[in-house]
Automatic annotation (TrEMBL):
Keywords assigned: ANK repeat, Membrane, Transmembrane, Transmembrane helix
InterPro entries, sorted: Ankyrin_rpt, Ankyrin_rpt-contain_sf, TRPM
Species annotation: Macrostomum lignano
GO molecular function: monoatomic cation channel activity
Start-end of Basic and acidic residues biased regions: 652-661
Amino acid composition bias (Acidic residues), ranges on this chain: 633-651
Protein name as catalogued: Uncharacterized protein
UniProt keyword Signal present: no
Length: 1106
C-alpha cells in the first residue's frame, strides 16, 4: 500500500470529506466543498494533523489543487501564504519535497523565489539541500538570485560545494557574480569543495577561475585543506588535471617552459606553495629578538627610516628587521615603495656579512623575500663583483682569478661556465636568455650558486629553501660544486671541511624533498619522483638529477630507492615491468634480427604494461615518428619510448553533458584531451597507430603497420640493457677468437680468425671515437679520458694497433712447414707479446659486466678502492725494502758482481734479477738458502763471499723477513680489513655511480655490437656528409618528451613543501657515523636556542604580570 492509499484510508477514518476528495483526485467535489467551507481556502481550517491544504498540496506535488486554490482565491496569493508548523511557506515546502510541478506552478503565480524562510534560508539553498538540479533550473529561470546568503553567510554555491554537488554547482556558477565569494568562516566555494573531497568539483571551480590563494579565518587555503584531509588520491587527481591543461604538442622541455598554458599552471602551483609570501604559521622569533609592538606612528617612523635611504649600520638594521617581522610591516614596506632600498641593505648587511640568523628572519619572518630575491638575482652581477673575501676561504680570490674580467672588473658568466666545465669537470651549461622563467632557471644566476662561489657556504642551505621549483636540481648542482671545488689548489683545509659539511646538509635537503614527494605519491611503484629524476634538464648541461648526483658524489642520494628505481627504469626502459627471466627470454629472441615473434610479444607486453609506464592517471601514450630508418646511437636519441610513449591509446567513454558544460576558465583547456579514463565507467585499451601528436595516422594501412613494426623493434634494440647484453656477447666472442689466435693460430700468414679479431678491434676503435666525439659535444672530454674503463680501452687499442702494425711486415714472409721460427724469430715473438698483452687487457675489460650485478658490482668497487688506497702505498714501501735489502744482500754475497773464484763479472741485468729473486721470493718462504749459504757452489762456481754467507742468512735475511713478512704483510692485511669495514656501507653508493656511468655509456653506444657497429658508423658518416653538403639536418631519431614527468612532480612538490620550507633542515644520514658528531652539535645548538627563547618569553610574561 503506497502513501496515497494510506492517506485515503486515513481520510475515510477521520471522515474528512475535503481530505477524501483531495486524495480521490475529485477536483469538482473538492471545489464545491471548498466553496461551501471557505476556511479551507483561507487556511484557517487545516487538514491532516493541522496542515493547511495549500501546504499539503505543495508537499505532495499537487499543482492541480494549488491551481484550484489560486482560482478560488480570486487569482490572488492572499490565501496561499500560509506556513506549516516549521514556518515554511508553500514554495519552501514544495522545494523540500522535490515537488517539481508544484514549484513550477507556485513560481508561475508569482511566488517570490528570493523569499527566505524563518531560518533565513533562500529557496535556492533549500534546492541545494535536497540535491535536485531541476529545481535549481526552475528557480533560476524564475529569477532566483544566486548571490543571496543564508543566515551563516553562505550563498547557494557554498551550500552546493559543501555537499559536493558538481551538477548543481555548475548551474549556480552561471548566476554567481564572484566565484571566490566569501561565506561562513570566510571560506570560498573552493574551500568547501576541498572539505567535501570532491575532485571533479575542485577541477570545475578552478576551470571557472577560482583562486587557490584565498585564506579562511583559520589562515587555510583550499589546498591546505586538501593536505589536512590527507586524501592522496585527490592530490594525484589535481596533478592529472594540471597536466591535462597543457597541450600535448610540447616536443621538448624548453617548449613546455615557453608554453603559456604551462606558465599558468606554474602560477597556480606558485599560489599553492607560497609559504614565503603567505606563511601557514606565524614566524617564531628567536630569543635575541624580543617582540616589541609599535604604535601606528612608530610603524610609520620605521618605514620612513628605510625609505630615507640613510646609512644604517648593522645593529640598527637588525633591530629594524626584527620590528618589521614582529609587527607585520611587510605590506607597509611594499606600499611605500621601499623595496629597492631594503634590497641594498639586505645585500650589504646580510648576504655579504653571511648573517644566517638575520636571513632566516627575513625569509620566514616577513613576506618580503620573493621580491627581494627577484631584485637580487636580476642584478646578480653586482653580487659577484662587489662581494669581498669573508674569513680565509679563498673563494673570492678564486672567483676574481677565473671568471671576473680583470680589466673591467665585471662578472663574466661565460668564463664561469667554462671554469665549471674545464676545472671542475661539470657539464657545459648553456646560457638562458629568459630571466623571468620560474622553472629551470639559469643556475649561474641564482643566489645559491653565488653563495657557494663567494664562500658564503652557511647561506647556501637557507637560500636553497627559497627556490620555488628548482630545489632538487639546484641543490644537487650546489652539492657537485661544493665537492668539486675541494680539489682546487689554494683552498684552505678548514674551508674544504666546511664545504663538505654544507654539501652533506644540502644533499640531505634534496633527499628530504624526494621522500616528501614519495609520501603523497599514489602512483604504482612511486613513479612520479622516479620519472622526474630521469628527465634531462637543459639548464644543467642536459643532465638528469641522477647525473647531477653522480657528478657530486652524492652517495646517500644515489642509494635512495627512487634513484635506484630511476636508474633501473632508464636501463630497462619498457622491459622494466617484466620479470628478469622474461627479459632474458626476449633478449634471446632479439638475436634473430627483427624477429616477428619478438614483435608480437613486445606488443602484448607494452599494451598490458602501458598504464605502468607513466603511472599517471589520464596520461595517454604517444609515439615518436622515425624520419629515416638509420641506426644511430646519438645521445639525443633518448630511446623511442623514453617518455612513456608508444602506440597505445587510452580510450574512455564520452563525457556526459554535465561534464562538458565548461565555458570560461582561468586555466587553459586542452581541446585534444576530451577522452580520459573515468573511474566509474572503466577504461578500454585500444591499439592504434599514431602520429607524434597522438592521433591515428592516415594513408596506407600497410605502411602504417610497417612503421609500427619498425618503431617497436627499434625501441627494443635501443634499450640500454639490450645493447649491453649484445655487446657482452660480442665481447665474449671477440676474446674467444683473440685467445685462439694468440695461443695456436698466430702465424706469418694471416688467418680468417685473425681477420675477424681485427674487424672487432676496428669496431671498438670506431665506438671509442664516437664516445670521444659525444664527450666533446657535452664538454666532458676530460671526464671521459680519465675514466678507468676508458683508460683500459685505450691501452688495449694502443697495444692492438702497435701489434697490428708490427704484424703487417710479416705477411711478406713465406710460409714454412717448420715451427722453429716461433722460437727463433724475435720480431715475431715481440709482436705476439703485444697482442697477448692486448688480449689480457680485453679479458680484464670483461669485468665491466659485473657493474650491473648487485652481488659483484659493489665488491669490484671495493677492490678498486683497496688497490688505490692500501695496495699501492704498500707496494711503494715494499719496493723500497726489496731494493734496499737486495742491494745490501747482493753486495755482501757477491762484491763488485764477482763470484768467489770466478773472474767473470756479472752483468747489471743479472744482478737486478738475482736481487729481485732473493728479496721477493723470501716473502713467500723461498729464502734462496743454497745460494746464500754457498752450498754446492763449487760445481756452479757461484760461491758467495765467506763473511757474507755468514752475515746475510743469520742477520740481514732475519731482519728483512721480520720487516717484510711479519710487519708489512700483516699491515696490508689489517689495512685491507679496515678499508673493507669503512667502505662496506658506502660500496653500494659507489656501485651506483658505476651503474650510472654504464647507463650513460650505453645510452650513447650503437645497438649493433662490434664488428657490426662498423656499418652503423659508416651510415652516420654518410648522414653527416649529406648534412654538410645540403646544409640541412636529418633527424634520424627524435627524443620524445612527456609533460607529465614535470607537471606531476612539480604539483606534488608544491603540496609537499606547503608550510614546510622553514622546517627543511639538512640532516646527516645514519649510515655515515663519521659525520654524526657535527650534526649532533648543530642539534644541541638549536635546542639551546629554543630553550633561550622559552626562557625569554617566560621572563617577559612575568614582567608583564608584575
Amino acid at each position: 500500500m503506497d502513501w496515497r492509499e494510506r492517506q485515503r484510508t486515513l481520510s475515510r477514518t477521520t471522515g474528512d470529506a475535503v481530505l477524501e476528495a483531495y486524495y480521490n483526485e475529485d477536483l469538482d467535489r473538492l471545489s464545491s466543498l471548498l466553496q461551501s467551507s471557505p476556511d479551507y481556502i483561507t487556511g484557517e481550517a487545516s487538514v491532516l494533523r493541522g496542515t493547511p491544504l495549500c501546504i499539503l498540496a505543495s508537499r505532495e506535488d499537487r499543482s492541480d489543487v494549488l491551481e484550484l486554490l489560486y482560482r478560488l482565491g480570486d487569482n490572488s496569493l492572499k490565501h496561499m501564504v500560509y506556513k506549516d508548523s516549521s514556518k515554511k511557506n508553500c514554495l519552501h515546502t514544495a522545494i523540500r519535497a522535490k515537488a517539481l510541478a508544484a514549484t513550477q506552478y507556485l513560481l508561475t503565480i508569482k511566488f517570490d523565489p528570493n523569499e527566505p524562510d524563518e531560518d533565513i534560508q533562500m529557496p535556492l539553498h533549500a534546492a541545494c539541500v535536497v540535491e535536485e538540479p531541476r529545481l535549481i533550473k526552475i528557480l533560476m529561470a524564475a529569477g532566483a538570485d544566486c548571490n543571496l546568503p543564508d543566515e551563516a553567510g553562505n550563498m547557494p554555491l557554498h551550500q552546493a560545494c559543501q555537499d559536493g554537488q558538481v551538477v548543481i554547482s555548475r548551474l549556480l556558477m552561471k548566476g554567481t557574480a564572484d566565484i571566490d565569494a566569501r561565506g561562513a568562516n570566510d571560506r570560498t566555494p573552493l574551500h568547501y569543495a576541498a572539505l567535501a573531497q570532491s575532485l571533479p568539483l575542485m577541477k570545475l571551480l578552478m576551470e571557472r577561475g577560482a583562486s587557490v590563494r584565498k585564506y579562511d579565518d583559520d589562515r587555510h587555503t583550499p589546498m591546505d585543506i586538501v593536505l589536512r584531509m590527507g586524501n592522496q588520491n585527490t592530490l594525484s587527481g589535481l596533478a592529472d588535471y594540471f597536466a591535462s591543461m597543457v597541450p600535448e604538442d610540447c616536443p621538448s622541455i624548453n617548449a613546455l617552459i615557453e608554453c603559456e598554458h604551462f606558465n599558468r599552471v606554474i602560477q597556480v602551483l606558485d599560489a599553492i606553495d607560497d609559504d614565503m609570501e603567505n606563511p601557514v604559521e606565524s614566524p617564531v622569533l628567536t630569543a635575541h629578538h624580543k617582540t616589541v609592538k609599535l604604535s601606528d606612528e612608530e610603524k610609520q617612523e620605521t618605514i620612513n627610516r628605510i625609505a630615507s635611504d640613510d646609512r644604517i649600520d648593522f645593529i640598527e638594521f637588525r633591530r629594524v628587521v626584527q620590528l618589521i617581522a614582529a609587527n607585520n610591516l611587510s605590506s607597509m614596506l611594499i606600499e611605500a615603495d621601499c623595496i629597492p632600498n631594503f634590497v641594498n641593505m639586505v645585500r650589504k648587511l646580510v648576504l655579504f656579512r653571511e648573517d644566517v640568523e638575520l636571513l632566516t628572519t627575513i625569509m620566514f619572518g616577513t613576506t618580503l623575500w620573493p621580491k627581494i630575491q627577484k631584485c637580487l638575482e636580476d642584478s646578480i652581477e653586482i653580487m659577484y663583483e662587489n662581494c669581498s673575501e669573508i674569513g680565509s676561504t679563498g673563494m673570492v680570490a678564486l672567483m676574481h682569478k677565473t671568471f671576473i674580467d680583470k680589466e673591467r672588473g665585471t662578472w663574466r658568466p661565460d668564463l664561469m661556465t667554462k671554469f665549471f666545465n674545464n676545472r671542475l669537470k661539470l657539464p657545459l651549461i648553456e646560457p638562458i636568455e629568459d630571466q623571468n622563467r620560474k622553472f629551470l632557471r639559469d643556475p649561474t644566476g641564482t643566489l645559491t650558486v653565488w653563495s657557494v662561489m663567494s664562500g658564503r657556504f652557511h647561506l647556501t642551505e637557507e637560500l636553497l629553501k627559497s627556490e620555488q621549483f628548482d630545489i632538487l636540481p639546484n641543490g644537487l648542482f650546489c652539492v657537485a660544486l661544493l665537492r668539486k671545488l675541494q680539489v682546487i689548489s689554494g683552498i684552505p683545509r678548514p674551508t674544504k671541511k666546511t664545504m663538505e659539511q654544507v654539501a652533506d646538509r644540502v644533499e640531505s635537503i634534496c633527499m628530504t624533498l624526494v621522500r616528501s614527494v614519495n609520501t603523497i605519491d599514489t602512483s604504482e611503484k612511486k613513479m612520479v619522483a622516479i620519472n622526474f629524476l630521469r628527465q634531462r634538464l637543459p639548464a644543467y648541461g642536459d643532465l638528469t638529477c641522477m647525473g647531477l648526483a653522480s657528478h657530486g658524489q652524492s652517495d646517500s642520494f644515489m642509494v635512495m630507492q627512487a634513484v635506484q628505481g630511476g636508474v633501473d627504469r632508464e636501463w630497462f626502459k619498457r622491459l622494466y615491468h617484466t620479470s628478469s627471466f622474461y627479459r632474458e627470454f626476449l633478449i634471446a629472441l632479439g638475436l634473430i634480427p627483427f624477429n616477428p615473434l619478438l614483435f608480437v610479444l613486445l606488443r602484448k607486453l607494452w599494451i598490458t604494461t602501458c598504464h605502468l609506464e607513466g603511472s599517471f592517471p589520464g596520461e595517454t601514450a604517444q609515439t615518436d615518428r622515425i624520419e629515416a630508418v638509420v641506426i644511430s646511437s646519438d645521445d639525443d636519441i633518448d630511446d623511442p619510448e623514453d617518455s612513456e610513449t608508444e602506440a597505445d591509446e587510452v580510450v574512455a567513454e564520452e563525457k556526459t553533458e554535465k561534464e562538458q558544460d565548461v565555458t570560461s576558465s582561468s586555466l587553459p583547456t586542452d581541446p585534444n584531451n576530451s577522452a580520459k579514463p573515468d573511474d566509474k565507467t572503466g577504461v578500454m585499451w585500444k591499439e592504434t597507430i599514431l602520429h607524434e601528436s597522438g592521433r591515428p595516422m592516415g594513408g596506407n594501412f600497410f605502411l602504417n603497420v610497417i612503421g609500427l613494426y619498425a618503431r617497436t623493434m627499434f625501441g627494443f634494440y635501443f634499450t640500454p640493457a639490450v645493447k649491453f647484453h649484445y655487446h657482452i656477447l660480442a665481447h665474449i666472442i671477440f676474446i674467444g677468437f683473440f685467445s685462439y689466435v694468440v695461443v695456436v693460430k698466430f702465424e706469418y700468414q694471416i688467418s680468417m680468425a685473425e681477420i675477424i679479431v681485427y674487424l672487432f678491434l676496428l669496431g671498438f676503435f670506431l665506438e671509442e671515437l664516437h664516445e670521444i666525439n659525444h664527450a666533446r659535444i657535452n664538454g666532458s672530454v676530460l671526464n671521459h679520458i680519465t675514466d678507468g674503463w676508458n683508460i683500459l680501452d685505450t691501452i688495449g687499442l694502443t697495444l692492438s694497433f702497435v701489434g697490428f702494425c708490427m704484424r703487417m711486415p710479416m705477411l711478406k714472409n713465406t710460409a714454412t712447414d717448420s715451427y722453429k721460427y716461433v722460437f727463433t724469430d724475435m720480431y715475431y715473438w715481440w709482436t705476439r707479446f703485444l697482442l697477448q698483452m692486448a688480449c689480457l687487457v680485453y679479458w680484464m675489460r670483461l669485468l665491466y659486466v659485473s657493474t650491473v650485478m648487485e652481488t659483484l658490482g659493489p665488491k669490484l668497487k671495493m677492490i678498486s678502492v683497496m688497490i688505490t688506497r692500501d695496495f699501492v702505498p704498500f707496494l711503494i714501501m715494499l719496493a723500497i725494502m726489496m731494493f734496499g735489502f737486495g742491494i745490501v744482500i747482493h753486495s755482501m754475497l757477491f762484491p763488485n758482481g764477482y763470484y768467489m773464484g770466478n773472474p767473470t763479472q756479472t752483468s747489471g741485468a743479472d744482478i737486478f734479477q738475482s736481487m729481485f729473486k732473493i728479496t721477493f721470493y723470501a716473502m713467500v718462504g723461498e729464502y734462496s738458502s743454497d745460494l746464500v749459504s754457498g752450498k754446492d757452489c763449487a760445481d756452479s762456481k757461484k760461491c758467495p763471499h765467506p763473511l757474507g754467507q755468514v752475515i746475510v742468512p743469520n742477520i740481514i735475511m732475519t731482519i728483512y723477513i721480520i720487516i717484510v713478512s711479519v710487519l708489512l704483510l700483516n699491515l696490508i692485511v689489517a689495512s685491507f680489513s679496515k678499508t673493507v669495514d669503512e667502505i662496506d656501507k658506502k660500496s653500494m653508493a659507489m656501485w651506483q655511480f658505476e651503474r650510472y656511468d654504464l647507463l650513460e655509456e650505453f645510452m650513447v653506444r650503437s645497438p649493433l655490437p662490434p664488428p657490426l657497429s662498423i656499418l652503423g658508423e659508416l651510415a652516420r658518416w654518410v648522414v653527416t656528409i649529406w648534412e654538410t653538403l645540403r646544409h640541412e639536418e636529418i633527424v634520424l631519431r627524435r627524443r620524445t618528451f612527456s609533460k607529465h614527468r614535470i607537471i606531476y612532480f612539480l604539483t606534488l612538490q608544491a603540496f609537499a613543501m606547503r608550510g614546510q620550507r622553514a622546517k627543511l633542515v639538512g640532516e646527516v644520514e645514519l649510515g655515515d657515523p663519521a659525520r654524526l658528531i657535527p650534526q649532533m652539535m648543530r642539534k644541541v645548538k638549536r635546542m639551546q636556542g629554543r630553550l633561550s627563547n622559552i626562557r625569554a618569553r617566560l621572563a617577559e610574561g612575568r614582567s608583564k604580570r608584575g
